[in-house]
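no rush on this but wanted to send it before i forget. what follows is a protein written twice so to speak, once as letters and once as structure tokens for the fold. mainly i need to know what kind of three dimensional shape the backbone takes. thanks a lot i owe you, the record is right below.
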Amino acid sequence: MSDIREIRMHMESVRDTKKVTSAMYMIAATKMRKAKADLDSTRPYFDAVRAEIKRVFRVDTTVESPYLYPAGEHDLPGDYAYLIITADKGLAGAYNSSVIKEAERLSKEHASRFFVIGEFGRHYFTGHGIPYEKDFLFTAQNPTLQRARVIAARLLGLYQRGEVSKIFVVYTDLKTGVYQEAHVGRILPFHRGDFVIPKEEKKITKPFYFYPSVSEVLDNMVESYVAGYVYSAMVDSFCCEQNSRMNAMDEANSNADELLAELKTAYNHERQGKITKEITEVSSGAKALARKKHKK
């Protein structure tokens, strides 16, 4: 009887766990849809900023800016700033580990200053003795444009004061609905080639005038460009986190179904064995009574 009771309790435990994983799946799906909608609603503005930067390079091919990559140079002196985007918690498959592995690899290549978004990443960096900047501690949940602007202003300030020579963002890029990978994107300095003009785009037929100068207009647009880049990376990572959690919870549900099927088979086997044993005992008792009666 104890075996049947234990199996029944185990089955109830698995069913309760499945209720939790199913709820987490639905929550992750809702969050991902909302994040994608927020990104789609703000993307036109940043696309317009990028288009205007293209226009600057198309109008003046010799424009100079402190945000442009120095000609003929690759490895710039000074520290590199890395914005690492992780989740606030686990239960999302390999989402966090892939970004952290990439950050560890980068820390060995060049002197780096890390800025970490997400509690999971900060706990990992602290536990492994990896120093990171603690002047802003942002959550990875529900990324907002306002938060992205604060982060962009902080990173731009470091770049403008010469404290860092490059700015990168390490995040998870959602390639497809089932495939995603850790990605390292350079925000600053940028190349003219980063804003390549498509061949099918129409050529300028009317002159454009920039006031007070082309370079100053370009420099003023950089803040919006960096904020847009950071915001896109944050939302992309958040969508990947929810997608990974959905996949993890879906796999957990499948495993729960398989385990329940096995437990049900074991339960039926034990129950059938118990019934057979009881029938055998009743039959044996009836035969014993019959023999005793016959002797009398």
About this structure: The chain has two domains: 2-19+250-295, 28-247.
